[in-house]
Design a protein that fits this description.
single chain, 109 residues, alpha+beta, three-stranded mixed β-sheet, three-stranded antiparallel β-sheet, 27% helix, elongated
Length: 109
C-alpha cells in the first residue's frame, strides 16, 4: 500500500512548513488518474499525524477528474483511464491535461 508512504510524506511536508504551529486543516488535490486510493490516504492520515503538529487536523480531499485532449481535433473529454482514444473520425490518442496530480493545495493553522 503506497498510500501509507505518500501520507507520511504529506505529513512531513506540512509539518515542516507549519514549523511547530498546530495545523487545523489540510486541503489536497488528488487526480482520478494518479493511481492513489483516496480512502486509503484518509485511513492512514490519523495514524500518521499522531504526535505531530497535524494531530487532530481535518483532511479535505478535492478529487480532480481525468481529462484528455485529442491530438488531432482538439476536443477535451473526461478520462477514466490513462490510455484512451478520441471518438473523432481519426480515433487519435488523447493527451492528458488533468487528473494525474497529487498536490498539497493549502493548510490552515
Amino acid at each position: 500500500m503506497h498510500e501509507l508512504s505518500i501520507t507520511r510524506n504529506i505529513v512531513s511536508i506540512v509539518s515542516e512548513r507549519a514549523a511547530g504551529r498546530p495545523v487545523r486543516r489540510i486541503h489536497l488535490r488528488i487526480g482520478a488518474l494518479a493511481g492513489i486510493e483516496v480512502g486509503a490516504i484518509e485511513f492512514c492520515f490519523g495514524m500518521c499525524t499522531e504526535g505531530t503538529a497535524l494531530e487532530g487536523a481535518e483532511l479535505v480531499v478535492h478529487e480532480v477528474e481525468g481529462r484528455g485532449e485529442c491530438e488531432r481535433c482538439g476536443e477535451q473529454m473526461q478520462l477514466q483511464h490513462l490510455v484512451a482514444l478520441c471518438q473523432c473520425e481519426r480515433r487519435a490518442p488523447l493527451r492528458i491535461v488533468a487528473g494525474e496530480e497529487l498536490l498539497i493545495q493549502s493548510m490552515e493553522l
